[in-house]
Amino acid sequence: MFKFWGSQEQQAQPHPQEMPRDSWYPPSVVSSSSSQPTTPSGGSSSSFSVPRPADRANSLSNVSPAEASGIIATLKDKSVDELRKLLSDKSAYQSLLLSLEPVKTQDRVRDELQSESLQLARENLQKEPRMVELRNQCRIIRTTELATAQEKLHELERKKEETLKNYSPASLLHKLQEAMHKSDEESEAVHRQLLDGEIDLTAFVHKYKKLRQMYHKRALTHLAMKTSVTS
After folding, report:
1. pTM attached to this predicted model
2. Contacts of 221 (CB under 8 A, 6+ apart)
3. Ramachandran region, residue 37 (left: φ > 0; alpha: ψ -120 to 50; beta: rest)
4. CA gap 13, 203 in Å, rounded
């Protein structure tokens, strides 16, 4: 009996291996793992069903090539029953996961970090009494020695301001002008003493000459200083 093409052959096609219904894996992983290419039928022109790249990228984005090759080397010697058990038995999967070298390394690093963190916490707790003592000492210094030092600093700053004020150009000009007027008044007083006959001519010349020299010296200095300040 003749067989029509596509009748019996299509029925004899093997179906893709379905995943266990009691698998504890997420649906995205199960659908990604169970997807197989389908044979095109005679009555349709459908293409192969390929897993989406986004599904693979989500599951492999955090796995380096070296780690992936190590995982593949661990799984390639497993039988089909063992692989099925990994999909359905969470304890078997957990045991395999903990036996992988990257997981062992991660656990070891985690344990080391936890141990170092606990050690730092213990050291900090041991230093707490010393910190409290130092804090109390700082408070005492702030209320006693620091207050005295600040008061002394304010006094020195006040004296500094007074000194700068006394030696400012305006202050020096004022003092020089007062000294100039004083020399002029003293020379006039000596001149009145001569007119009143209180001193002789020789003493008058000596005193008057000295006072007038001082007056003109101060006057010239005042003029030069005033010119340089204004310019």
Report:
1. 0.34
2. 176
3. beta
4. 148
